[in-house]
Amino acid sequence: MRDAAIPMTTVTLAHGAGGRASDDLLRRVILPALGTSTERALCDSAVFDSPGGRIAFTTDGFTVTPLFFPGSSIGRLAVFGTVNDLAMAGAIPHALSLAMVAEEGLAMNVMRRVLEDVGAASAEAGVRIVTGDTKVVGRGAVDKLFLTTSGIGVIGPGTPPLSPERARPGDAILVSGTVGDHGVAVLAARENLSFSPTVESDCAPLADLVQRLLAAAPGTRCLRDPTRGGIAATLNEFAHGSRAGIEVDEDTIPIRRPVRALCEILGLDPLYLANEGKLVAVVDALQADAALAALRCHPQGAEACILGRMTADHPGTVVIRTELGTHRIVEYPTGELLPRIC
Amino acid sequence: MKYLTEFRQASLRDGLVQAISAVARPVRIMEVCGGHTHAICKYGLASLLPPEVRLIHGPGCPVCIVPPGTVAHAVELAQRPGTIVACFGDIMRVPSPRGTLLSLARRDGRVRMVYSAMDALNLARENPGIHVVFLAIGFETTAPSTAVVLRRTRTQAIPNFSVLSAHYLVPPALRALMADPATQVDAFIAPGHVSTIIGLDAYRFLADEKGCPVVATGFEPLDILHAVLMILTQLDRNETAVENQYRRAVRVGGNPAARDAMAEVFTPFDAEWRGLGVIAQSGLAVAQAYAQWDAVALYGAVESNETTDGAGCRCGDVLRGIISPDACGLFAVRCTPDNPCGPCMVSTEGACAAYYRYGLGSRK
To answer: Which of A67, A227, B175, B224 maximizes the CB count within 10 A of its CB?
Structure first.
């Protein structure tokens, strides 16, 4: 990874965009202040031993404009986001907390609709909201409604430890379905871009899919849900964490036609768009076919495919084989995604 | 996907590469469109070419060449009571002495991202109590749509809309480049979308006076390889001509209606380009007849275009094709897309940003 000084005088939007600046903020400001070691803190969930077995614990804040968009809403995101972070540790989600910060003047029926979505999503994910908190701040202090959820989950005794450090050259890299759907759905709703067919967010709970995958492929090395920063960020985290290289075939990346079309028009790269119901897995190559079959048997993984492989070449770097048969590097995302002019 | 995947087929690549190798010779080919720079880097096209065939990146990114003073002016206008600024997405991140448009957009909605000049006009229609300033950037590709919108603004007598023009013209920049002895270019890949407007005649001086083959080119990787082959074939036959590779989009005569609209609404003037300085008759100011909708006439001109580019920044040399991005000492060390020291790192279509993003020459 290239080290370049990113100014740390003020917090910028890039620090929250899930790319290099976010990583920098975590490593240079947050973790040193907390005295937390890097290795423990960079996973989606923390994993603890308890007398009853291993427990996963995580927390996540949610801000999205608009609050409702095709296929989902901030309420569903807040449940599935946290449930999925637990699932990526191999845990079965058990309970969630929900904290709301609402802007004065927010229509009560908007809050009610969001909460109904939270309730329905938690039922869908098989998890209960067991505690919560509500704060209201003056107009302009937040944008309508921010949610924070924390969650705990239980990791079964046979579940392998999941961490990018366990990935090694030769392992296969799988994705559970099409990429970029959520990013395009939110962008289209936020910018009032109308096109057909409408792309819906892929927002979905993944814990059940993960359990099927781990049962079929106990040699699964690590899992991540490629949210902010898309699969580009996830693959770079895997390459960085494993100190191995990654090779991806551009031809094999599943992308819906309208997502691809909108990306072409706006000059966006689907590899960098957020997903909210997909996982990327690194699996022992000998179990790759079993893993793929297990994913494809599940409704959330019907379009799963093998994206590429870990390699001993170019450690720490993600290289993509383009449609044209040439190679290029897939970098960490930088800053916010902004459409091109022409 | 129609018109895309056909132009990215690996199966057609080898035939083109072999044909290129058969007529290869030492040549420096400059592209002057950010879309080409981006495609060349994204598809690693340089790796397919014989080493003596060099692709040089010129001043083709319309975001990169907007001087910081113009961005600062837009930032200032967005902070005036009762005004909002509408602009394209990729200018929003460009740093200026007064900050970025993006920070204002997120802070209080005084800057809005739009996808066309018409979207900006619609914003004015929907918000009659607010004055909407459209920061109009781009070359001949986007200038006609701004012109058409200004015509409509006048016809419909919309009072709360104006244009801050940062439109630039490509041919004057090509003239200036060729007059610079430091720039050594043997042939040009001419911009595809600009050519749909200006046609091929605008490049004749390069072939006739400078002896440079010119090929108007599409944006897919096989388009660009095809253009390289066409250029090498010309050189092999000892010819210099202006040819059209991008026939599915470009007509030889361009788009006269679009040029008429530009001629009516804009007046060329000696404009400053970031990294290149002032180039004669290369900018488009809003014409006197449209002064009522000219943000400069309404709010005053840009006060200062002093550069904020960092010490050691060699974007000027990159834009003139004198060095490649990775030859700059700041590249990927102090200058990154998160912390751009100069314009070519700012927009995704800037040569430095494209090199950085796709990992070319970055392993220092």
So the answer is: B224
Q: Is B292 within 8 Å of chain A by CB?
A: no
CATH code at A164-329: 3.90.650.10
How far is CA B169 from each of CA A92, A298, B178, B349, rounded to the nearest angstrom?
A: 60, 55, 15, 17
Cβ atoms B111, B133 nearer than 8 A: no
Mean of the per-residue pLDDT values of chain B: 92
Partners of residue A341 in chain B, C-beta under 8 Å:
62-63, 88-91, 137-138, 142
**Do the chains contact at A191 and B138, CB–CB below 8 Å?**
no
**Tens-digit pLDDT profile for residues B80-112:** 999 999 999 889 888 888 888 988 887 777 999
pTM of the predicted structure, to 2 decimals = 0.87
Mutate to test the interface with B, among A264, A268, A324 (most CBs of B within 10 A): A324
Of A13, A193, A261, the CB nearest to B106: A13
Judge whether B334 is closer than 8 Å to chain A, CB to CB: yes
pLDDT category, A3, cuts 50, 70, 90? very low
| Residues A254 and A178: beta-carbon distance below 8 Å | yes
CATH class of A45-155: alpha beta
State whether residue A63 sits within 8 Å of chain B by CB: no
CATH 3.30.1330.10 domain range(s) in chain A? 45-155
Specify the domain boundaries for CATH 3.90.650.10 within chain A: 164-329
CA B271 to CA B303: how far, in whole Å? 14
Chain A CB contacts of B92 below 8 Å: 338
